[in-house]
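mind reviewing both lines:
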Amino acid sequence: MLDLANVVQGDQSPADAFKRSVTFAQHAEQFGYKRYWFAEHHNMESIASAATALLIGHVAQGTSTIRVGSGGIMLPNHAPLIIAEQFGTLESLYPGRIDLGLGRAPGTDQATAYALRRNLHGDADAFPNDVLELLQYLGPADKQGKVRAIPGVGTNVPVWLLGSSTFSAQLAARLGLPFAFASHFAPAQLFPALQVYHSSFKPSAFLNEPYAMACVNVIAADTDDEANYLATSAHQLVLGLIRNNRKPLAPPTRTMDLLWSAEERAAVNQMFYYSFVGSTNTLATELTSFIENTEVDEIMVTTHVFDVNAKIRSLELTASLFKTNKVESMA
């Protein structure tokens, strides 16, 4: 499960979003989800997961067994040592339950990226070296230099590389790391990235063979009509991004026709190309096809639904597909 700690219309403060995230994570754990990740974004009114490591710790404290991590930490915004110390601390507090997914985008606009870094010298071009430095900080004590991450040394927090193009796929393959693709908002390069990752993978101390994940939008309900109705909140969210008018997550609407133009509708649908919306019968067929075609090892779902109970129901129905082996390739 990927969570952005969505701020919804009517929230009094981001604290409301954090309470919902704990609730969703507790239910995800109960339903059998393996991971619960947060994404780092900044200067977005609809997203409260900016201080990602803090939120990971908060949710890990509120759960018992589910792995909690980042999907991802935007490494160009941070010194690798700081991230190693933060996630070394998390791993020390919640051993065996922390994941560290890394991205190379800023997770925001250029002005905010400058405010985060105070300069733009630590940009995405330094990403490969920053990843290597971070891996060293989290690795064995005998491989540390004069600077050590304390806590962090020897924690071996699992590191994933995230991407929406072939760049991180190539790097993950070269370093022998697991790879997760952001097909929930950048579908175009999914298959080229997976092909590059699998064909170029080199075994490492981390993995003997490639291990890939794809993130997709999933909204499940008892009927197709209800699911499509709930999905209009996600459509409005993306429409706001397209218009550069970022607002909290809106309630669903019976029709989007009065809210978007034909061009905007096409743009939203393109971004949501890998979206699975419907009843369990509909989702079972579509998810099975997706998994067979991509041959990914894991699916990560993100679910932008306005109503808390409807989102919990969506998580439950989605989980039921895998528990009952309705999604055949994941059985």
User: Anything to note?
Assistant: The two ends are 18 Å apart (CA to CA). Residues 2-330 form a domain with the TIM Barrel fold (CATH 3.20.20.30).
